[in-house]
Amino acid sequence: MIDTEKKLPNGWKWVKLGEVCDVISGTTPKTGISKYWNGDIVWVTPTDLGKLKTPKINNSERKITKAGFNSCNLNLITKGAVVLSSRAPIGHLAIACVDLCTNQGCKSFVADSKVIDNVFLYFTLKKSTPVLQSLGSGATFAEISKSQLFNFSIPLPPLAEQKRITTVLTAQMAAAEKAKKACQEKLEAAEKLQTSFLNAIFESENAKKWPKKKLGEVCKINPTRNPIIADMKQNVTFVPMPAVNSETGIIDKAEVKKLKDVFKGYTYFEENDVLFAKITPCMQNGKHAIARQLLNGFGFGTTEFHVIRPSEQILPEWIHSYIRQPQILHEAEKCFTGAVGQQRVPKNFLITLNIPLPLLTEQKRIVKVLTAQIAAAEKAKKAIIDEFELIDKLPVSLLKQTFERKL
Fold it and tell me: In 3-state terms, the chain is what percent helix, strand and coil (to 5)?
């Protein structure tokens, strides 16, 4: 709740939103009447507000006609009003850049410009979002009522101070957004590094000189399971599809199951086998990994893996690096079989896949360099993500500073 007993700076006062704004609800024309829809009147929903990247709104996914507008006593919200999603979820905000109307999931605030600046109102509501969300109630989804919003108290400085605050905040928010965009660009560049490293290896001049073999000539694809002589109550490693990190190609969420529970109906693999996700979209997303640190040297996983067992001529890391290249995954996608949504890469794609095969010593040298490069790239990426998260928190921090008079 807002603490209206809290002492405010000189010249500030507590006011109810209904004292300084018209609070307006929205509604929805009947969806089954076609003449009400596909018009030119902007009709905003919480979904529209949630998709915004800026504080302004001038369009909507669906629009209504004049007939639709007149059919349900909608109010036209004038340009400059602040629009709030009042349910599903509470808290999306925007300033209207055109005249518009809304559905029942929004409440709009038309400010009395002689008393409150509309941009100041936007920032005030933005700062108050956690409190507004806490006031929501409802069996199906949380909602805050028009009456609650009408009576919601906000701190109000003199108009000149409001404008000073909005000028400072607008400039700082723009700077924060600019920093966020720059950080996003750095992150996108970092995410492309691994592909660049792989291209530098497999498309190099040296690579053109390496002999090529079909993967089925140097590996066993989906080999027959070796006899297991073990206690059926013992623990084994289990790898469902979510256990594989699609970005790193590492099994980072392996599970432990009893052998008796996975012995039948799952894919068997052994230490150092390469697991290739065959089903869409896991295949395209890069859910391919080397089976490592398996309990008792073997494990089981989803049947949506092909198993690639390397011979002594080829390293599992070499196979793993090669098959995770975007161009290889693209070629695999061309070979999909099955119904849409359940398409899979057939075993034969892997058997016939041409793979460059330098000497084992050269594979080891290259894998060592590549591993170091990828580790450095991941470290840089983590630093950028940490920076991005810090920048992402700036707007909340700036709002807090403003309303604590620290700007």
Answer: 40, 25, 35
